[in-house]
Amino acid sequence: MGVGGVAYLRIRPVEPMSQLLDTILLFSLPASGKSEVRRYLASLTPDQCRNDFHMGPTLQLDDYPYVHLMHRIDDELKANGLGYAYYHGPDRPFRDNWTWAVLIQLLNEDHVNLMASRQTEVASAAQHLFDRLDAAHAKVGLPEYLGDIPHRIRVRVAEALEAECRAELDTLNRQNAQDKAGRTLVIEAARGGANGSAFPLCPPHGYETAFQTLSPAILEKASVLYVWVDPAESRRKNIERGRPDGQGSILHHSVPMEVMLGQYGTDDMAWLMEQSDRPGTIRVERLIQAGDRYETKVYHLPVARFDNRKDLTTFVREDAKLWKPEDVQAIHSGLKAAFDQLARV
How far apart are alpha carbons 271 and 267 in whole angstroms? Predict the structure, then answer.
């Protein structure tokens, strides 16, 4: 037990250059280079992953597909004469900021399904997503929007979105079917707060709320890789990467400027690192159910920053055949230094 009766979860010891990192929380501002890092990691050989990054071949989860599909649901609701369920408008923020916690609940569910190798077989992937969205909203105390719309309109919206939802469900099912032994899970998300916000950020904004919402099963094995850019660079790269047809792409979508300033004008990762009582970690104190009671547990998540303030990642968006050796060396060296730090904590 820790001080004051608080139970501390011990981070599993990592032997440098040998034991693999289990779960990486790839967190940072939009367009910082997270998705490019994921793509680069996926391009490596198993030997490179193991020897240079203390990782197995990667499994990957991301909350952006849900952000995009909620926009698509709103599009179809509007086309059928109803108001938006999730956003103030097609280029505007969430109607309720606690939707940030909804996204983490969906990632928690994806993680459970992945670890259980669960195959989800449903007649309609869109209707299945609608049910999942309503259940996740209920978990954080938000209305179950899609359960309240007329059935005939729900059917029309589902028919319009079935192909996109089916493609996403198929992707999850294929990954769930893979052998998890010796692999490293990478979970990507972006969080922040309004430009000029003071710390700590007010829930549900920022990474502190994300850590408070992630399941204990994830926290027990997680390390944090923060891709470091400042908010101004995040905004610049967000505009640069955007393509008219890229909103469904993790590499080429563009976040609306109102959202960039109001939701991602700053983030609290550096502040959380400074607050931790153990260097090189994020301290997460959680109330956890233990049988018929609750107890407080503290997780110390190893954390490292991959310095991308001088852009090392944009080239990864191009065809791998076009990657220049010097660019590959720069990203590889920077990531190796960060992963070495994670493995030492």
Answer: 8
Percent above pLDDT 90 for the chain: 82
- Spatial CB neighbours of 328, under 8 Å, sequence gap ≥ 6: none
* Residue 335 one-letter amino acid: L
Of 209, 224, 243, 20, the closest CA to residue 97 belongs to 209
pLDDT for the residue 13 = 44
DSSP string, 218-253: HHTTEEEEEEE--HHHHHHHHHHH--TT-TT-TTT-
Q: Which residues contact 95 (CB under 8 A, 6 or more apart)?
A: 84, 85, 86, 87, 88
What are 312-339's pLDDT values in tens digits?
A: 999 999 999 999 999 999 999 999 999 9
Lookup: tokens for 280: 């090189």
Rg (CA), the chain: 20
Range 85-107 burial, b when 16+ CB lie within 10 A, else e: bbbeeeeebbbbebbbbbbbbbb
The CA distance from 32 to 225, in Å, is: 12
7 compared with 60, residue with greater pLDDT: 60
Give the type of residue at 112: V
- pTM for the model stands at 0.89
DSSP string across 264-285: SSB-SHHHHHHH-SSTTEEEEE
Task: Check: CB of residue 132 under 8 Å from CB of residue 113.
Answer: no
In this structure, what are the phi and psi dihedrals at residue 259, rounded to the nearest 5 degrees? -70, -40
Cα-based distances in Å from 294 to 7, 10, 67, 230:
11, 19, 32, 39
Show the tokens assigned to 81: 């004469």
Q: Reduced to 3 states, what is the DSSP secondary structure of residue 24?
A: strand
